[in-house]
Write a structure and sequence with these properties.
Elements: E1 5-7, E2 10-12, H1 14-22, E3 28-38, E4 45-54, E5 57-64, E6 70-72
Antiparallel strand pairs: 1-2, 3-4, 4-5, 5-6
Bound molecules: zinc ion (ZN).
């Protein structure tokens, strides 16, 4: 499940999606999944991706496919 997905009109890899959410580089990522929830800003579909921003931390990030909204489970 590491296929690329379209986010805000651009094709992104799991790595790129995680970097958009984190606004920084990340060490490692899992695949992109559908989060089964809707964006609180625009009602669009939300994707999730698990990633490691550093060696000691694992974060699940959420990003709207249609607008700039994102959050993490921190
Ligand atoms: Zn949105």
């Amino acid at each position: 499940m590491s296929e690329n997905r379209v986010v805000e009109g651009r094709m992104v890899t799991p790595q790129k999606l995680a970097e958009l959410i984190e606004d920084d580089s990340v060490m490692d990522t899992e695949g992109i999944e559908d989060a089964d929830r809707q964006c609180p800003e625009c009602g669009g579909d939300v994707l999730s991706v698990g990633y490691m921003p550093g060696i000691t931390e694992f974060v699940t990030g959420y990003k709207c496919q249609d607008c700039g909204w994102s959050e993490t489970d921190r």
